[in-house]
Amino acid sequence: MDLDIDIDGWPVGRWEQLAVLAAGAAADVAPELANSRLTASVLFTSDDEVHTLNRNWRQRDKPTNVLSFPMLERTELSGLATHGPPAMLGDLALAYATCAHEAEEKGIALEHHAAHLLVHGFLHLAGYDHVGSESHAEEMEALEIAALAKLGITDPYGDRNH
């Protein structure tokens, strides 16, 4: 997957590398993401910007940690030929202050939490969802855990029973 990464409002760090690693780990556990034709944009930005995006595009007037904007239906993605022009998978946006606050509350490194949110976002772009179905939520969590393990990051849901 080819990524267009923009970093604005995050501290100096290896965010670009983290996004590439997270995309690779997500593709390892969700093979439909491994298609080399796929492109996605990742925006590391401020809470204000994510709040505005959430309000304008999701009609939710509140900040959040990560937003995903898929551009392909799940059936389109799974049926996408491996040869051809680039295909836009979608966009992700991560809110710095919310991510930093959540990482601090959880007692984990910001980089680990951001990697989790990136994997979570990429899975959303692939059509996975956790809302409305316990089995879908469990499937998505299992994929997140497996992808993060590939990055050497412990299970973010370890405090819950599976």
From TrEMBL:
EC id: 3.1.-.-
Major place of residence: cytoplasm
Keywords: Cytoplasm, Endonuclease, Hydrolase, Metal-binding, Nuclease, Ribosome biogenesis, rRNA processing, Zinc
Binding residues annotated for Zn(2+), in chain numbering: H120, H124, H130
Compartments, as annotated in UniProt: Cytoplasm
Cofactor-binding details, from the entry: Binds 1 zinc ion.
PROSITE patterns in UniProt: UPF0054
Required cofactor(s): Zn(2+)
Signal peptide positions (record): none
Top-level taxon of the source organism: Bacteria
Similarity annotation: Belongs to the endoribonuclease YbeY family.
NCBIfam families: rRNA maturation RNase YbeY
Protein task: Single strand-specific metallo-endoribonuclease involved in late-stage 70S ribosome quality control and in maturation of the 3' terminus of the 16S rRNA.
Identification of the protein by name: Endoribonuclease YbeY
Organism listed in the record: Parerythrobacter lacustris
Gene behind the chain: ybeY
